[in-house]
User: Fold these one by one.
Assistant:
Number 1:
Amino acid sequence: MSDKKPEEKEGPVQVLQTPVRLEYVFSAGQSASRLLGAMAKGKLLGQRCPVDGRVYFPSRGSCPQHGVPLDGAPVELADKGTVATYSIVRIPIEKVPLELPYVTVQVVLDGADTVLMHLLKCDVDKVHMGMRVQAKWKPREEWTSSVENILYFEPIDEPDAPYDSFKEHI
Amino acid sequence: MRDVAVVAFTQAPSVRRDLDRNEVEILIPVIHELKQKTGLKNEDVDFVCSGSSDYLAGQAFAFVSGLDAVGAWPPVCESHVEMDGAWALYEAWVKIQMGYAQVALVYGFGKPSMGDLPITMALQLDPYVLTPLWPDAISLAALQARICLEKGVCTERDMAERAVRDRKNAKDNPFAQVKGDFTVDGILKDPFVVSPLRKHDCAPISDGASAVILAAGDRAKELCKRPAWIRGFEHICEPLDLGVRDLTRSRSTEIAADRAGVGKKKIDVAELSAPFTHQEILIERALGLDDGTRINPSGGALAANPLMAVGLSRIGEAASRIWDGSANRAVAHATSGPCLQQNLVCVLEGD
Amino acid sequence: MSQIEKALTAPHVIEYTYKRSLGPVLSQFFTALRERRVVGVRRKDGTVLCPPKEYDPDTGESLGDMVPLKDTGVVTSWAWVAKPRPQQPLQKPFAYALIRLDGADTPLLHAVDAGSESRMKTSMRVRARWADTTTGAIRDIACFEPVD
């Protein structure tokens, strides 16, 4: 046996802590790389489903409804859209660039058929479905291949979109 | 028991590192080709089951995105196992046996190149006394190999012969990763990776995916001229702790083979998913294979090892030999866990 | 598929610490390690498992009869790791080994610091080298070393 002294008695060991650290090189893949590459140029690229023509943004390379590859020419979308639904956040979350309370929204971008989850900077009492909003971008010199180029959305002075135009997203 | 057959199989080429596609993008063309081959649409498939590992992807619930490659609207009946797709196929087979499905789509996919695979594999070990020591998968297999060598279960030449055979067979397999003509004496001169294992003793690390269609009765005959009927199917598990197992044989494979009826008649073709050469020897013996069986015509796991799909691919490859008439009775094997802890045996027959 | 283009890649690190409850058998094993002692557990047939288990791996019977063991033992198999990874117990070439401690019937896995592969041999005798600080974990044994 070792001649080293036993540790101080601290009662039986009842819990074991097991640290795990795993390092990966993560690949965005074809679809997200195209999207993020376009982001660096301030463009929003969607992909059209060859079966029903719906435009996905963001696209993950396959139509999750029909299971067909989305490998046709990308569709450029506006950075404006309509609030399909929203939630008001009153607890702090790390790295969110807005002060509490703030709004998270699902936005249907003009030209897209899917919703984008994002932040909305506005008076929380004013937010409503159908509200027209536009992306607030970081300064151009700070753009990278990241969705974080868009800081949040902001309301714009346009009449509300009709309910029928976004009802399938709520 | 219902008559259930493997009727179609597709796979992605196994590559060491598919840096430009994510897991789902590797899977999309595999599923797409399978649907095109069979003419099946989502509404024709009653059950979808997959095998993958979130630790390989480095993302919690990464397996959910696999469904993007299938399409899930209208909603589909679906399940997932955090195991090789061969076990997903077992679940689908049970589902069909119970009468809940006629046609099932099964897939497995994995992209181990994103992380340090031998270390990622340490997470499947006992979290109290093993994982904190980070024994990599190759070291654990090397411990087993040394016991086999020192107890005379096999020799380094026997092991090298498996590598030479599998790599030669893989020359005819466009999806294989390690292939070519080698000599036993030549590769025995290579240095050890983790002694006593050399590079040729270890299956490659492969990114890949594969998919299979299972169908019951008349539906199988409609989808395939010569269905590969599943006539025996079992999987058996041993304790995780290497210290309490006999590492010189694969007891779980022996039991699974017995229950699946492997030895009842001659086996024409065997497709084995042993990731190390000495393990291939142990599996051959546990299955009772002899010179009358063509072993690993595809090259087996030693030629292409897309983790989480490699076992499913063995079933697909074995079925392919039934379809083309080159075999009438075939056995496929899949494994999981350290040093052949858990083993699956599937017997396929033509009409 | 259309032409495959070069994809964007990024490093991605996952780090987390699990806290695991031990239960009575492993609690005694790890408490002993903290005191630089090793214990095993006796099965009904008299054989001793180390590392100990809550249940008999063959019969599933509950186990709890703890047995003190020596921190010396014999190597039953080994694998030579020429290029250790950062997580592994030693940062110089070493062996992973199955070590049957004196008084036990089953081997436990650990590292052996033998200096060179030529000093490793199945059936060689080894002794635990204890860590300077012990916390109640398997790495309270820093590694094993050959007994000349």
Note: The two ends of chain B are 16 Å apart (CA to CA).
Number 2:
Amino acid sequence: MTFATMLQTMGSGMLKTILLFVLTLLGSIPLGMIVVFLKKSKFKPIAWLTDIYIAIMRGTPLMLQLLVWYFGPYYIFGWSIRGYKFPALLIGFIMNYAAYFAEIYRSGIDSMPVGQYEAAEILGYGKIQTFFRIILPQVIKRILPSVTNEVITLVKDTSLASALAYAEVFSLAKQISASQTSFLPFIVAGVFYFVANYVVAWIMKGIEKSMQYYK
Amino acid sequence: MKKLLAMGLSVLMVAALLCGCTGKKEGGRVFKQGFDLDYPPYSYIDDNGEVGGFDVELCKALCEYKGWTYEAVPFNWDAKDAELNAGNCDCIWSGFTKNGREDEYAWSICYSDNTQMIMVPDDSDIKSLADLAGKRVGVQTATSAYDLLQDKEEGQGELRETFEKLEVYDTYTIAFNDLQAGGIDAIAIDVTSGNFLMSGTEGYHFLDEALGSEQYGIGFRKDDTELRDEVNEALQALVDNGTYDEIGKKYPEIYEFLCLKPSSEE
């Protein structure tokens, strides 16, 4: 196998990695918000259930979760899971990352001083208005560095999809390395991940900058 | 008096400990067997969490015969070359296929034959290799079945082109789960691993038509021929004294493929 074909094969794997990454972000960032609201719900059973959900998502390996999401329907209901691999991967990644994002959001929301809510109330803001107009913009600004951390971790975590034979870049690197008895594919995969994360960090830096409206 | 007694006893104990150490060292070298920790029945982590399998037992017997200290070096199969070249293990001994890798390692005598087969559910409409056209087939990465399906010149690369998809798994265990759950239609696997997977379940069989065949040997670093020769000699001795046969009988799914014969029969 020439270096060019290797790059080409691994490039196709990188596209699959990016597809999984982007769809996971699109799903988990909004879902995390919903999870935070559920966790802060006044109706206690919902808050407890959300706590259990977060505990399981954070307390068990993501790889195990992926296996359960994929094989669960067969082992529990006896359904055929033909063609269900990619949806299972997406569900697994989104549910897991939503739990982490929810906790990051919570850290931001809880860090807001009570005085702001009180001031908003005096100025005649409603509850929803207060949250979306006053609290949320500050929360987003505050949590961005933590979110960047999580997003970068996600880029690398996509390699766990190889557990379900999803041909992302790292599992291709393993396959090529084994059949060519060469370490080179791993280096190439490392460069791919690094470049992808560099781009992610650069974009997040741009967003952070655009939010420094007090400077 | 008590103090003196205590001192005398501790000196004795330390002396005994030291004797123990030197006694072990005199036995010879440490032999580090590198193997895949999930490649039953050749090498795996058994029900008690200990390493087991035909290759592991045979290697332990060989170390006992040579008076060497056995050391297990389980690894992920992808990492085998890195582990061997870094000197973390002395050999790769784990149902390791010689065919196609003849020039890359110093090979021992081959101790087992194997065949690559296609495993399908009993109710499958796949009856021959040709029926695999348009089907989803699973395989484990870095196995000979995988290599066979990549090789267009001497292997089954062209057959692979007819599949709808070739799913490449980290382990056959997951591939078999997927076959049971209906995610894929067939698995390309060597016959011994396949027999092991099917031993716990009913409803699966091999197609009559084989995908390919191969021989298992022990792979040493290319410049390590001295150790290889020593192991070869010891291996033949274990065949002659019946140990090889004895261990083989514990693994009925591979027994018929063990190919070494006592030197008197040759």
Note: DSSP finds eight helices and no strands in chain A.
